[in-house]
Specification:
25% strand, binds sodium ion, globular, Maf protein, alpha/beta, binds inosine 5'-triphosphate, six-stranded mixed sheet
């Protein structure tokens, strides 16, 4: 089957393709910009985005809205992650975290799939913000995030390894489980 993924983030597309192509799903990227409202949750951002996009796309499609939530910063940057990445970047986050002992953070990914109605799939991975950037793979906040139980950052992992444990990988797992169930009928 063929699935349209609306995003302008190449890193997301690479991860999603690596995950879905072995399952026989061809992912077609559409870089349509959709309004991202200032909401309190990623779920609301996704619901609003899908609501807007459904009048612009005729076939089933999905979007992925993600965020990095840092405990000691009360969940910041969270829903503001894209903006904060563009403005402060990883260096800015590391600056904000200077001297802070509690480094706990998590990534959350919300996938919204629209096939006439909205279906939401989520994934979370816990970990910590390290003290300096490490690794050159991946994208976004990957060089400063080390998942629980690992001694390397997401930016030091191959896509397959990241996909097995990441927020996006876990959301994709739910999504594909649902697709298998529902396409049978
Ligand atoms: P879209 O076009 O899909 O919206 P985006 O980059 O704007 O792409 P988000 O709104 O989900 O995506 O932005 C979340 C921010 O968090 C953004 O700066 C990403 O680079 C970053 N991010 C998302 N997933 C990530 C991951 O798996 N690893 C590291 N950083 C990630
Ligand atoms: Na975005």
């Amino acid at each position: 089957m063929r699935l349209v993924f609306v995003t302008s983030n190449k890193g997301k597309v690479e991860e999603v393709r690596k995950y879905l192509s072995p399952l026989g799903v061809e992912v077609v990227q559409k870089s349509i910009k959709y309004p991202e409202i200032q909401a309190n949750t990623l779920e609301d951002v996704v619901a609003f985005g899908v609501e807007w996009l459904k009048d612009h796309i005729t076939e089933p499609f999905f979007i992925d809205d993600s965020g990095l939530f840092i405990e000691s910063l009360k969940g910041f940057p969270g829903v503001y992650s894209a903006y904060v990445y563009k403005t402060l970047g990883n260096e800015g986050i590391l600056k904000l975290m200077e001297g802070i002992k509690d480094r706990r953070a998590y990534f959350k990914s919300v996938i919204g799939y629209y096939d006439g109605e909205l279906h939401i799939f989520t994934g979370i991975v816990h970990g910590k913000i390290i003290n300096e950037k490490r690794g050159s793979k991946g994208f976004g906040f990957d060089p400063i995030f080390m998942p629980e139980g690992y001694d390397k950052t997401f930016a030091e992992m191959e896509i397959e390894e990241k996909n097995k444990i990441s927020h996006r990988g876990l959301a994709l797992k739910e999504f594909t489980r649902w697709l298998k169930e529902n396409l049978k009928k």
